[in-house]
From TrEMBL:
GO-annotated biological processes: mRNA processing; regulation of gene expression; rRNA processing; tRNA processing
Cofactor(s) the protein requires to work: Mg(2+)
One Pfam family cited in the UniProt record for this chain: dsrm
Annotated Mg(2+) binding sites: E53, D126, E129
Domain of life of the organism encoding this protein: Bacteria
Protein name per the record: Ribonuclease 3
Residues annotated as transmembrane: none
Protein task: Digests double-stranded RNA. Involved in the processing of primary rRNA transcript to yield the immediate precursors to the large and small rRNAs (23S and 16S). Processes some mRNAs, and tRNAs when they are encoded in the rRNA operon. Processes pre-crRNA and tracrRNA of type II CRISPR loci if present in the organism.
EC category: hydrolase
EC number(s) recorded for this UniProt protein: 3.1.26.3
Keyword Cytoplasm listed: yes
Gene: rnc
Record lineage: Bacteria, Bacillati, Chloroflexota, Chloroflexia, Chloroflexales
Length: 242
């Protein structure tokens, strides 16, 4: 059985790098509802982290959208939406929580307390969002921005370098198979540039219809851009009653 590590407020603040005016807010972020139901007497003055998680999710989505809007002035609404989804999805937030080892400190019921449970993506993402909610209540949106922006910057760098990239090809395949029972096909339609820096242009088709065209320094990047354009076009088509 995994033994929960009970921490003083100052230690929690040290772990996340934020000093709270009201330490009870931070402590509440680490109280799972199962622990609250099992041991209400052990967390006097605290609440479970569900409400903080709800608030933190809303603040995170706003700050991420605003951050992307300023950082990428030339990106389309569809591109910004895809990037935001990649930055705030459960697996990404769970990764942020693992960086701080937050799962070790969550107060959870004895029946649910296992190493596997503490490492679940959903639980870790919830803790991270609850911490954001606690910071917001204690220090406002600026406090949350100071805390979360370094995480967003590191993850965005990973995406830009090709790791953790938004996989538009997979998304397009899932949409095409679900809606039309077809699999997209890709074809190189042009190559240009010097031999050491070729630029590829690829098209993606669904049946005989060209849905998107993309360019990139390799075929994979060009296919990703073509798939992204196709997804945007399909969204327009689906939303257009004509």
């Amino acid at each position: 059985m995994h033994q929960v590590i009970m921490l003083m407020p100052s230690r929690l603040e040290e772990i996340i790098g934020v000093t709270f005016h009201d330490p009870l807010l931070l402590q509440s972020a680490f109280v799972h509802r199962s622990f609250m139901h099992e041991h209400p007497e052990r967390v006097p003055g605290l609440s479970s982290n569900e409400r903080l998680e709800f608030l933190g999710d809303a603040v995170l989505n706003f700050l991420t959208a605003a951050w992307l809007f300023v950082r990428y002035p030339d990106r389309s609404e569809g591109e910004l939406t895809s990037l935001r989804s990649a930055l705030v999805k459960t697996t990404t937030l769970a990764g942020f929580a693992r960086e701080l080892d937050l799962g070790t400190y969550i107060r959870i019921s004895r029946g649910e307390d296992t190493p596997a449970a503490r490492n679940r993506d959903a639980l870790l993402a919830d803790i991270f969002e609850a911490v954001l909610g606690a910071i917001y209540l204690d220090q406002g949106v600026e406090g949350v921005s100071l805390f979360v922006t370094p995480f967003l910057e590191r993850q965005m760098k990973t995406i830009e370098e090709g790791g953790g990239e938004v996989n538009y090809r997979t998304q397009l395949q899932e949409v095409a198979q679900a809606r039309y029972s077809q699999t997209p096909t890709y074809r190189v339609i042009d190559e240009d540039g010097p031999a050491h820096q070729r630029v590829f242009t690829m098209e993606v088709r669904l049946g005989e219809q060209v849905l998107g065209i993309g360019r990139g320094l390799n075929k994979q990047a060009a296919a990703q851009t073509a798939a992204q354009e196709a997804l945007q076009r399909l969204a327009v088509v689906e939303d257009d009653p004509a």
